[in-house]
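Pipeline run #58 for the internal structure catalog. This entry was flagged by the ingest filter as a single-chain record with no existing model, so it goes straight to prediction. Upstream metadata was stripped on purpose; only the residue string is passed forward. Reviewer on rotation: M.T. Logging verbosity set to normal.
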Amino acid sequence: MGVLNVSPESFYKGSVKTSRYDIENTAIGMEASGASLIDIGGMSTAPYLRTYISIKEETKRVAEAVSLVKRCSTLPISVDTPRAQVAKEAIMRGASLVNDVTGLKFDKNMANMISGYGIPVIVGAYSEDRISGTLSSTLKALRESLELAKNAGIAENKIIVDPSIGFFRKEVTNNFSTRVTSLSWYARDQQIIRNLNKLLCLSKPISVGVSSKSFIGELFKMELSDRLVPDLISELKCSLSGAKILRTHHVKETSLALKASKLFGISRRNFL
């Protein structure tokens, strides 16, 4: 899943594209480099930035980007938003999947809207209350989202789970992230990646985004521009642990890493 942000406030400036030329060429390049789908975001939800924008502005950004990508690429489009109104406009423009980092919990209209359109959804691990941030609390948060999806009538085979790497902090700046009580944010993310295969107990496909996340910078004392190698190793670990979708800022490099792992016979069986 290639990341295409049309939000200038996003933390990773390399993924930010705002002009028609940049959006179209990025989408074309992602498809040529091996992406399976494109994830378009119109508002940064980073827990450590003050990046809240109006629904009107987010909708405008996303709608324009979806329309542009639909014209130049055959890849399915995911819309990365916690707000139902934004997601609905993106779907009407051609998006075929919703990526909600709040797991249907922030916007109470999201679950029913998705059910009505019959499209897949990625539910992120999220809690409105402060939680420990451990694997068990992450699983609990995801089970709550699965229950919301079930109650709204979203088909079981259209639900994907995401442990929300990078969205658990002791203090957050928006309502799209989870406050934790015990673990440091980087220890939490490390623990989840080490135990990602435990999410298979939910019997749902796993999506994960570790690309350029700040826990890598904290663990290795690296700036954004230097994180590619640990990024790729983390992504390969996630893939071998059962992740079906890798949300990445580096489509070409991630695609090559996955192809190399297959070429050299590195599989989940002999990895685990």
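catalog note: The chain has a mean pLDDT of 93.
catalog note: The two ends are 24 Å apart (CA to CA).
status: ready for reviewer M.T.
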